[in-house]
Amino acid sequence: MIAARNGEEAWELFNAEKPDLVICDVVMPRIDGVELCRRIKWQSFAPETPVIIVTAVTKDRELPDNFWKQFAGSDGFITKPFSPVQVLAMVRKLLADGCEAPEHDPTESHESRGGYEIEGR
Q1: Could you tell me if 7 and 32 are in contact, meaning their C-beta atoms sit under 8 angstroms apart?
Q2: Burial track 49-62 (b if 16+ CB lie within 10 A, e otherwise)
Q3: Is 1 inside a domain boundary?
Q4: Total domain count, the chain
Q5: Beta strands 51-55 and 76-79, pairing class
Q6: Is residue 27 part of a domain?
Q7: Full-prediction pTM beyond 0.85?
Q8: Alpha carbon distances (Å) from 4 to 32, 54, 103
Q9: pLDDT, tens digit, for every residue of 1-47?
Q10: How many CA atoms, within 13 angstroms, populate the side-chain half-sphere of residue 1?
Q11: Cis preceding linkage at 47, omega within 30
Q12: Does residue 16 lie in a domain region?
């Protein structure tokens, strides 16, 4: 396991260490988790690397289940608070199933989901 102090360091470590899986929080200094996930999926040597986003945003806020996949390209998300068992189960599933490189950047479209705007760059 490799830990980073911020999103910028996480991006540098991702490129240097080539991890099998990335877990990041949405809220990180310098580069947030959404931007880190987008870079991994659209600007890296290994876009098939599974990315799990950790967030305090819950289903109570009416986000659809596939929001983080569509918004950032993540392969999974875990809401806070969470249990280690929940994280381990998702990590095992993603590593066992593998992830394919995305065919297109989901942020290229503009759509509204549950009161949140998803806008391409």
Answers
A1: yes
A2: bbbbbbbeeeeeee
A3: no
A4: 1
A5: parallel
A6: yes
A7: no
A8: 12, 15, 28
A9: 899 999 999 999 999 999 999 999 989 999 999 999 999 998 888 88
A10: 4
A11: no
A12: yes
Stated length of the chain:
121
Q: Give the CATH number, domain containing residue 33.
A: 3.40.50.2300
Task: Give the count of beta carbons closer than 10 Å to the beta carbon of residue 120.
Answer: 10
How many CA within 13 A on the CB side of residue 97? 11
- For residue 90, which of 71, 68, 105 has the smallest C-alpha distance? 68
10-45: string of b/e by CB count within 10 Å (b at 16+)?
bbeebeeeebebbbbbbebeebbbbbbbbbbbbebe
Q: What's the domain range around 76?
A: 7-118
Token reading at 24: 């990041």
Residue-wise pLDDT tens digits, 52-91 = 999 886 555 556 666 666 667 889 888 888 999 999 999 9
Residue 44 belongs to a domain: yes
